[in-house]
Design brief:
The chain has one domain. 50% of the residues lie in helices and 6% in strands. It contains five helices and two strands. A two-stranded antiparallel ribbon has the order 1-2. The chain is globular, with a radius of gyration of 15 Å.
């Protein structure tokens, strides 16, 4: 599965990827009991939110406070950052959201379509 998302540049995400992260977060908020990961669209392509979160795992950019609140309200323990005013990076937010997606999938008995596609690509490359 080729990555349809723009790459990070020295740990920084292009604005379009940051906006897609926000859309993925909203899609997660609206996720009910479906068995597959919600999707968002980027440049006419369908992208699972798990792929968006994964693409941001190495991003050093600071998350806007409204997104921090949307992420931290899902945690079972209070979040404390190491930066001034408890700033959160997209990397931290992406890792948290990735875990929450996996937990939701387990609870719903579903699968991550991005993970299934990646496993299929890996098995094809072994042949």
């Amino acid at each position: 599965m080729s990555n349809a998302l723009p790459p990070l540049h020295n740990g920084h995400a292009p604005f379009t990827l940051q906006e897609l992260f926000r859309e993925a977060l909203y899609a997660f908020e609206e996720w009910d009991a479906e068995l597959t990961v919600p999707i968002v669209t980027f440049e006419g392509r369908v992208v699972p939110i798990s792929q968006v979160f994964d693409a941001m795992r190495q991003c050093d950019d600071i998350v806007p406070m409204n997104i921090v609140g949307a992420v931290t309200e899902r945690l079972t323990k209070p979040w404390e950052g190491e930066g001034p005013l408890d700033q959160m990076t997209f990397s931290t937010a992406a890792r948290v959201m990735g875990v929450l997606v996996r937990k939701r999938l387990l609870a719903n008995g579903g699968t991550d379509i991005a993970a299934v596609a990646a496993q299929a690509d890996e098995s094809r490359s072994r042949r």
